[in-house]
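User: Show me a protein chain along with its predicted structure.
Assistant: Here is one chain, sequence first, then structure tokens.
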Amino acid sequence: MTEMERPGALTIEHLVTALAGRPAPELAGPAAGVQIQDAVVDSRRARPGSLFVALRGERRDGHDFIPQAVASGAVAVLAERCPPGMSSIALPAGDETPGQPNAGLRPPVCLVVPNSLEGLQQAAAHWRRLHEPRVVAITGSVGKTTSKEIIAAVLRQRFRCLKSEGNYNNEIGLPLTLLHLRAGHERVVLEMGMYDLGEIAHLATIALPQVGVVTDVGPSHLERLGTIERIAQAKAELPQALPTAAEGGVAILNEDDARVRAMAGMTRARVFTYGLSPTADLWADEIESQGLEGIRFRLHHAGDSVHIRVPFLGRHSVHTALRAAAVGLVEGLSWEEIVTGLRDQESELRLVAVPGPAGSTILDDTYNASPASCLAALNLLEELPVAGSGARKIAVLGDMYELGSYEKEGHRIVGRRAREVADLLVTVGKLGKIMGREALKAGMKTGAVYLAEDKDQAIAVVRDLLSSGPGGDVILVKGSRGLEMEQIVAALQDRVVP
């Protein structure tokens, strides 16, 4: 299919065909040819030209917000029931034939399906198959979102790219991203998360990735999956879903993680490895952290050696750079394009340094937390110098969720490392107290550990510490998303999180 043959814009007709499972009767009248500009599940994000997908949640039912979405300009609604008085088309599942659409249909049009989520996924899968981009998918226990951002930054040096927004990495976010696909897109970069076995395999049937990147296998989601082996099994669904090497499939695997390395034997795709070992296809050495100025290292591949400095924080970020460079190499980019992409300052990095009160520097790593990512953040805190005499390193660490049987040990490991790195430790939440008590057990002074019940108490503690300190402190803030740790950073900067 040439670019001229691909559909330029998503229309209501495309959705009807996708949801019917076969070519549907053409629409006539005002609804004919109406274009869908974007797809949303939050009525507050609807705008003129939107498709609003009404999903039923545990707390709220999206069907209750259809009027708000329509008032904001939504031209189509995907729902299980239609509000009175709204133009609608019933699209039953299975082999039933959709009824002939009324020629007098007027936007907004409600597309009524048995299950809104399945309808969203069906529409996205259909739309994906009408286009021919190379799809790059990333999965792993940590580093997915940052890797997605940097991979997209590298690829856009040559290709027109679509990437998933924020953490749109699940059964809702991924199809929403694919509905933004247009004829001109040459590469799509998607994050794939999971809570249970089979979920990544299902996402792959929707997105049809040709390139799969696996970051690592860690105890995140251990509470749901039970064992680290089952987590590895779930992550392996991505390389298993890739097409063969002859069909352009490439599995990009972390050589430094034994469980990821083992996935090389589970895929029909070409295997390309990255890591810090010369046994990898792409590897790095001469790593030097330059604090807030980034990191320097040397890359090696197929006889080439490239020295590079990138604006990433912490030695662990070398693996992020390696993943992005690996994708660039397998997609045929030059070293110049890869290096330019790695240095792209427009990337939405998760770990950033921002100014705080009293001349302090805040390391904002509040996106999420696991033992591995907390240890990496503490390693960065250790690497960074403080600004002045008497300045301190303060770690503000919150609960880490979904660790299952690893919950207590994971928090203890982080607590022991915090004792080695931080001058002061502020923990947030019930599980955070395990870190604080372990730090005390490891020898941290009683007056250096503060056990806050929640983010508000932590804000008060940190403000008090900064007001009574010498200035120039470095403050790491990190914890699981459920704790809203980003509000600690916002409060210290005297701003409000939307």
